[in-house]
Specification:
The chain is α+β, with helices and mostly antiparallel strands and 371 residues long. The chain is 38% helix and 27% strand. Among the domains are: 68 residues; 153 residues, no CATH class. 28% of the residues are buried.
Length: 371
């Protein structure tokens, strides 16, 4: 009798254990579905923010007057972008769809002081090379408080002096493929960021040398740098803060039309790639160099080809990266129980063009203070 009871009890316990295993598998399956859905949500969020920044930046880049994207913010369940354009700060709501971002009406937040007018001095050295000296950036004041870039300027100059790695000069932030010079001196004077260096000997560089001498009021500088550390958040209007970096690695100095070169907030370069898209504004600037300053059309065609080929490679690599990022594995806390149960059950150089001529140029006022 005892043996029969023990046998029946053992059989019942086995059935109970099997029932528990079946319930656990069903429960785990339901949990996994939920976890998979949550993972997909997180993946979509992670991928959508870069795409959102890219879409807004592209829209601003294609405007007639370039505006700097400072950041994208979440506010009361919505999104808005904060931009600086021509000495003014704006915000605009963002509506996101499946494949596009729509920017709402621009609303001015606050007006800021215009940066110091840039005037480049270009002189030919005894060895025949062309040297520039320019104010390439300036700290900016607004009506609420100071956006102080002086620490950033000091640290960028210090890093370059210690490492010997100075920024290169390029055209319209188009990267090393459009390089036209190499800096060898960085310094801060008060609120001004001073750069100097030598122009390269290539068609685009020679055209830029002629352009900044012929039309010094038309052309300006814009700096690109990699931020180091976390930014301080500075309130520029009630409820509106912008990130301000105090340290960075100066990567490049760009020559471009001065109306698009204002370093209103000394925005860091956050481009993931070295060559940006050859859009209408860049082409317009190159065509001005062709029409007014002797840049050959063949040189422009070669630069367009470089930009297009590089961007095709970037898009291919970016596609692979995004696909790889979606392969996320998670450890389930109850996996060990399930594995134990299964174990018990189973028991197993282009052509040179005309040489630029040296021209007389008004020297800028001598810097004071920190140089």
């Amino acid at each position: 009798m005892a043996a029969l009871y023990a046998s029946e009890r053992g059989q019942q316990m086995g059935e109970d254990r099997q029932t528990i295993r079946d319930l656990w598998r069903k429960f785990k399956s339901m949990v996994n579905i939920a976890l998979d859905a949550q993972e997909k949500i997180e993946i979509d969020r992670a991928l959508s923010m870069p795409r959102l920044y890219e879409a807004v930046s592209t829209a601003l880049w294609e405007r007639e007057t370039y505006a700097y994207l400072l950041d994208v913010y979440a506010d009361d369940g919505g999104l808005y972008a904060l931009m600086a354009e021509e000495g003014k700060l704006y915000r605009a709501s963002l509506e996101t769809g499946s494949d596009e971002v729509t920017m709402g009406e621009w609303q001015q937040v606050t007006e800021i002081h215009e940066p110091v007018t840039q005037r480049m001095t270009v002189q030919r050295q005894a060895d025949g090379q062309w040297r520039w000296l320019n104010i390439s950036g300036a700290a900016v004041l607004n009506r609420v408080g100071e956006i102080d870039s002086k620490a950033l300027f000091d640290n960028m100059a210090r890093r370059a002096a210690e490492s010997g790695e100075y920024p290169y000069r390029t055209f319209y932030h188009m990267g090393e493929a459009f390089q036209i010079g190499q800096a060898d001196f960085l310094a801060r004077d008060g609120a001004l960021y001073i750069t100097s260096g030598l122009f390269d000997d290539n068609p685009l560089a020679r055209a830029v040398v002629r352009a900044v001498q012929d039309e010094p009021e038309y052309w300006g500088d814009s700096i690109g740098y990699l931020p180091v550390g976390e930014p301080d958040m500075v309130e520029v209007a009630e409820g509106v803060e912008v990130p301000v970096y105090s340290d960075g690695i100066h990567r490049e100095i760009s020559t471009l039309p001065e109306q698009n070169a204002a370093s209103l907030f000394t925005v860091p370069s956050v481009q993931q790639q070295e060559v940006q898209r050859m859009n209408a504004k860049v082409l317009e600037a190159l065509e001005r160099l062709r029409d007014e300053h002797g840049l050959e059309q063949e040189a422009i065609d070669a630069l367009v080809d470089v930009a297009d080929q590089t961007n095709r490679s970037i898009e291919d690599e970016d596609l692979i990266t995004r696909e790889g990022d979606q392969e996320i594995e998670t450890d389930e806390p109850a996996q060990e129980l399930d594995e134990e149960a299964e174990d018990e059950e189973s028991d197993e150089d282009p052509e040179p063009d005309a040489e630029p001529q040296e021209r007389e140029q008004d020297e800028p006022d001598a810097p004071e203070g920190d140089l």
